[in-house]
């Protein structure tokens, strides 16, 4: 799984056709789904053997809920489902408990709600039912407008590997252990999962937990989710990687190369130990970091790590393994391994780990650049979508559903680029109704309302754009070499459909004949822009050839 997910994530960063990118995206999504099943099975094993233990650490409930929302929202958007999260009142104190297990319960419940809901809403409500100086009681409710269950189905719903209706496995997927895990985690929290459900109407799952409180929420770190934006850091140095699996070697080598680090591979502990010794004996610079696999032939990580630590090189040793039981982690720390990187890991998890131990030499994109790009995206959105609703309705009235679907789909993507989630969801619901010939009146009214909210909010940007004078002097035309480099970079971004291409428009204006290309980019027609770019490059080559002929 580490290799499949790792190579898929690496492939996403390459230039490829949109069709191939779709294949890679599906491989990655399904690999993560399979990994979740594997993790769930491991959790069931830990529960049944009595090895699951809860931690007690401070956490911020608002961060936890935001993380859940960021993970579930994309799934709801794909199905055109509205999702509402509400927590009242906001807490000012830190809660003490196991945020990862509480998050796991909520994600299981929310995932099920989205999975079994074809239209309507999924809601999460969190209320404080009791609060004292030392503890707080919270009630969590997840309800949906899904298929619902009968009382007979509810009676068996917590049995592992059982779904309420066996036909659901084929239609909706899954293996029926999420609710069993949630129930067992809540049992450890001295809580109980309650269910209310009506076939064809929907279901509500609720539970109450009492947690200790102490200190303010400003005193604890935020819970960071997978969807958190992170600029890519760049480093310098060489890392020793203990890894015997050839495919895993390639994954970690390429990931490290992308952030400026060289990887030296050791297939087993004995080889790696000799590499460290040789550097010390020859007075060479030590490795800046060591990634230690645990299960290796000849000499495993358990035996190797303390021997390296005893050499006194001072290089931090990071565990790189899929073994994540708390007992394992305690052992790794005792053996001198100071941190942990799971298998499989995402690029962002790797960046976070590296940043904890190595000073970055630079970042690929600064926050200011991100802010400039986002402001331009918002300006372009309000400029190009003033008449979009009228165009969509005109297409519907003339029964050109293909055009209506394309316009809604494009707007949904653009709304996501500028972070307008509610509009993105409303567009997703309209897209789903158009695709499945569903009832349009309600979803189009909601879509219209959300669109007008966003356009009204961004209207000041439109006024600035309309009043801004066009640049009188965009600078001297780029020379051939600089123009070629710029167009190559732009081609890579357009091939990926990346809105980062908009950050190149100022420099692009210095290439004669680029006006059509810039206009297509600003209208988010990245596919058309790519074709125009290729034509512009060909035109430049012809002009260069004619010039050479005259010479």
Secondary structure: elements and pairs:
Elements: H1 2-12, H2 18-48, E1 57-59, H3 61-79, E2 82-88, E3 93-97, H4 99-115, E4 121-131, E5 135-144, H5 151-156, H6 166-172, H7 178-188, E6 194-198, E7 202-216, E8 233-234, E9 237-242, H8 246-257, E10 261-266, H9 269-281, E11 289-292, H10 301-310, E12 317-321, H11 326-334, E13 339-342, H12 347-357, E14 362-363, H13 367-384, H14 388-397, H15 401-417, H16 421-435, H17 441-467, H18 480-495, H19 505-508, H20 515-522, H21 526-550
Parallel strand pairs: 2-4, 9-10, 9-11, 11-12, 12-13
Antiparallel strand pairs: 1-3, 3-7, 4-5, 5-7, 6-7, 8-14
In a few lines, what is going on in this structure?
This protein is of the alpha/beta class.
What does this structure look like?
The structure is a single chain. 30% of the residues are buried. It is flat and about 75 Å long. The chain has helices at 2-12, 18-48, 61-79, 99-115, 151-156, 166-172, 178-188, 246-257, 269-281, 301-310, 326-334, 347-357, 367-384, 388-397, 401-417, 421-435, 441-467, 480-495, 505-508, 515-522, 526-550, and strands spanning 57-59, 82-88, 93-97, 121-131, 135-144, 194-198, 202-216, 233-234, 237-242, 261-266, 289-292, 317-321, 339-342, 362-363. Strands 1, 2, 3, 4, 5, 6 and 7 form a 7-stranded mixed β-sheet that branches. A 5-stranded parallel β-sheet has the order 10-9-11-12-13, sandwiched between helices. Strands 8-14 form a two-stranded antiparallel ribbon. It has 5 domains: 1-52; 55-219, Heat Shock Protein 90; 234-363, Rossmann fold, CATH 3.40.50; 367-467, Four Helix Bundle (Hemerythrin (Met), subunit A) (Up-down Bundle); 494-544, no CATH class. With 551 residues, the chain is α/β, with parallel strands linked by helices. β4 (121-131) and β5 (135-144) form a beta hairpin. Mean pLDDT is 78; it is low at 161-175, 221-230, 365-370 and 466-470.
